[in-house]
UniProtKB/TrEMBL annotation:
<dbReference type="InterPro" id="IPR013780">
    <property type="entry name" value="Glyco_hydro_b"/>
</dbReference>
<dbReference type="Pfam" id="PF16874">
    <property type="entry name" value="Glyco_hydro_36C"/>
</dbReference>
<feature type="active site" description="Proton donor">
    <location>
        <position position="549"/>
    </location>
</feature>
<dbReference type="Pfam" id="PF16875">
    <property type="entry name" value="Glyco_hydro_36N"/>
</dbReference>
<dbReference type="InterPro" id="IPR050985">
    <property type="entry name" value="Alpha-glycosidase_related"/>
</dbReference>
<dbReference type="InterPro" id="IPR031704">
    <property type="entry name" value="Glyco_hydro_36_N"/>
</dbReference>
<feature type="active site" description="Nucleophile">
    <location>
        <position position="479"/>
    </location>
</feature>
<comment type="similarity">
    <text>Belongs to the glycosyl hydrolase.</text>
</comment>
<dbReference type="GO" id="GO:0004557">
    <property type="term" value="F:alpha-galactosidase activity"/>
</dbReference>
<dbReference type="GO" id="GO:0016052">
    <property type="term" value="P:carbohydrate catabolic process"/>
</dbReference>
<dbReference type="Pfam" id="PF02065">
    <property type="entry name" value="Melibiase"/>
</dbReference>
<protein>
    <recommendedName>
        <fullName>Alpha-galactosidase</fullName>
        <ecNumber>3.2.1.22</ecNumber>
    </recommendedName>
</protein>
<feature type="domain" description="Glycosyl hydrolase family 36 C-terminal">
    <location>
        <begin position="652"/>
        <end position="725"/>
    </location>
</feature>
<dbReference type="InterPro" id="IPR031705">
    <property type="entry name" value="Glyco_hydro_36_C"/>
</dbReference>
<keyword id="KW-0326">Glycosidase</keyword>
<dbReference type="InterPro" id="IPR013785">
    <property type="entry name" value="Aldolase_TIM"/>
</dbReference>
<keyword id="KW-0378">Hydrolase</keyword>
Amino acid sequence: MAILFDSTNRLFTLQTDHNMYQMKADRYGVLLHTWFGMKGSAFDYSYRIAYADRGFSGNPYDAGDDRTYSLDALPQEFPAYGSGDYRSSALKVRYPDGTSACDLRYLKHEIRAGKYSLPGLPALYDEAQNSDTLIITLEDIRRMFYVHLYYGVMEDLDIITRAVCVENHSNEDIYLENIQSVCVDYLYGDFDLHTFYGRHVKERNCQRTPVRHGIQSVGSTRGTSSHQYNPFLILSNHDTTEDNGSCYGFSFLYSGDFIGSAELDQYDQTRFLLGIHPDNFCYCVKPQERFYSPEAAMAYSDHGLGKLSRIFHRAYRNHLCRGKWTTTRRPVLLNDWEGVYFDFDGDKLIQMAKDASELGIELFVMDDGWFGKRDLDVSGLGDWVVNEKKLGCTLKEISDQIHALGLQFGIWFEPEGINEDSDLYREHPEWAMQIPGKLPTRSRQQLLLDFSREDVRDYIFTHICQVLDSARIEYLKWDLNRSLSDLYSAVLPRERQGEVMHRYVLGLYDMLEKLINRYPDMLIEGCSGGGGRFDAGMLYYTPQIWCSDDTDAIERLSIQYGTSFGYPVSTMGSHVSHCPNEQTRRIAPLNTRATVAMSGTFGYELDVNKMSEEEKEIVKTQIQEFKEYYDLIQYGDYYRLTNPDAVEAYHGWEFAAPDGSEALLCIVALQIHPNGPGRWMRLKGLKKDSIYTVDGKEYAGDVLMNGGLLLPTATEEYESFRIHIVENH
Ligand code: GLA
């Protein structure tokens, strides 16, 4: 059992293969956090806490005249607002009398075999049952509600998950104004905080800053996890590198508003919090009801950021993504968007599919523009009726012809969106999210449907199913092209309007779950103007997400690099597009565009008809090559070798078989210089005593990892190389 309970000391020790997490209910029943880090003996780590009389940091009443006991200074597992701890808190409740001061004490606990799941929310799962669950129940000192702290200990994954449930056992309503899923109190404070920031077409850039006194936070109040900040954060030592040093990763399995913060307090202790952003959140919990916070996953690495990422990659590939597409090879696709945008008819699509089939592409995706009145992005959203006039045929006819070419068929939806110029809006303007008496904020000239409403979701679901049932469709792209605003739901009373953002996300999950249940074999790709909702919550429903609307291979190096810190390659939608690139006008070699797109869920997004015969031949070999390397890329261990944003001439990354028997080294030359120096790249993840062959030459594994491989000289800007390294037998 990975969860140890020492009843004498009321000490909980959670152990994974390499890590350990510890809490203790102290003499007042306060749940203290005592350890998170390397695995060791299940010793009581609370000996490290220094008690002292702390001026202006008060003492709880039950501590009597003990002036050395102050919640303001103690490392706590789940600090509540108003307890005398003036740091950021994990919980703020408004009681029926309008006050908010709260204090929580240990009541009981339960240890269960297996990993818990959460009603209506994404959660890591473990079918092999190598996980256990601990539920610690705290009670508020006024005896109105319980706080159940859930811990999933995923032993061989080195992951600990958390979620919080508040249960109202009084006769009156209480309001949750803030509930964080994670709080980790470190007794010391000398960390860097790593966050991933960006914007539309430039997501997940890395930022690393020392944690200073005060609160540093990133988050989203956009109703989606957002392009701007990602709900994956890292705390590390200042000297932690890719391969060395300590670091902690925190990932929120949620697709709406979030906040992640680090606070260095007056005693140089660090508090880390991650949960729903409180700005758009106030949730009424009725008597006898329970509220569940979304899950967060935490991991520790004593071998740098690379190992930390690989812990998340493994867990998300196999224990978050679900269903057939976890283990089944995903098809190489052609998406028509950058090829034709809105300008197509059925014949043009069939011709594109025909050209694609000759190259070895396996799935043809019809993107935006096939429904309602939709020849531009200003109308038609909400009208999920096939525009047969535009297509010149039925959807079934298109799908049948595409299947006759040996391809699968996929289709784009934006289920949450609505244009004012749509039949749906004309019929049901009250279904769009907008506040009576206030003109709404438009974005891409569209509004959003109130997905917190079941009737609205049911309507959209029915219409989407009608389309999906009318033809053979194996893939669905679920897009969302704006942030939420004007939060209001016509069916909720005044005092519950603060629930709309969260209910919207629950509604989204509910509909995705229904879709998966009805079409278990369909591959669903998430998207929000590229990577605006690239988070672990969505991955529970959509095993791949379009990583960015920026398809420029060189821009993609940074985007995919930043994304790789928290998410596996198998989740990153990535396509080869035309050059000059649509977003940047940059020209990068076709080979390089493929090198980058292969390091994701590989596909093309262009009009094959516009390619030369020579290019088509190259594409054929690229697809074959991708299929050969599929397992290595999609299921192998991913190593970042350089940072594309650092001034390095060559950028490299690598996929290594988990057993070290082969590797694929990917290199892109970011700068070329005539008469330049030699360049080497040190490989990782090989067996040091084995002999490997690279391009007909033999090397020992330790030589490749220590001395590195001498790289070919690039003779063209952005030239790339894919180098296969194979162990001799
Ligand atoms: C978003 C997506 C694109 C494409 C367009 C269609 O921007 O990210 O891939 O589907 O919408 O309107």
